[in-house]
Amino acid sequence: MKKEIIKKINSMSGSQSPYNIFCDWIELMALAVANSLCVIHGRTWQEREKRYLQIAEKYSRNDMHNFVAMFAWLTKSFDEKTSDILGEIYMESGCGNKNTGQFFTPYNVSLAVAEFSIPKAYDGSYPLTVNEPSCGGGGMIIAFADILKRKGFNYQQCMRVVAQDLDWKGVYMCYVQLSLLGIDAVVVQGNTLTEPYIDSYPRSRIFRTPRNMGLLI
Questions:
Q1: CA-to-CA distance for 144 and 153, rounded, in angstroms?
Q2: 107-208 CATH pick, 2.40.160.40, 3.40.50.150, 3.30.200.20, 3.30.450.20
Q3: Mean pLDDT of the 92-106 span
Q4: Which of 7, 14, 169, 207 has the greatest number of CB atoms lying within 10 Å of its CB?
């Protein structure tokens, strides 16, 4: 599925670069998931809906169908394996270079870090709180969930995550991936050093996964 997504991104990059196509795609997905969870269509919902339509106006109906197909392929990819799939797509489609200024950690490195981060004595009887101050696409959090799964634990039940990043692109990527994996997470845009997440954070900069909102059991 990952290869199909990369091919589709490259085929859509006519007047726009693969990087722009990718960035618009992840933002559309994040906005669509977040707004689909809202029962009350308040100010934040309206702002996100307006932004979604603003991006969609740049593309033809066929392009929007392609975005939907890519979302379906991404969802299916997570059924096949647990990995930082969006990070891999970003790098393999040529988006990660010196001009864009962002690179994503190889997943095997994230797995190694996660392996050492989980207490050896952990028995699953209490939730593990994971705070990721520079989440990027969420690769480290996904690796944490992957290791828990390999150890026989249900990461959807024993993880509580707060993920934060200054870059909106990382926020969108992280939010989409953690949502599709059913991870209980709050994903926040902001500088962790100067603006650490608190409950009074502006709603427009907070994305809560379906699991966090109690929509997954």
A1: 11
A2: 3.40.50.150
A3: 69
A4: 207
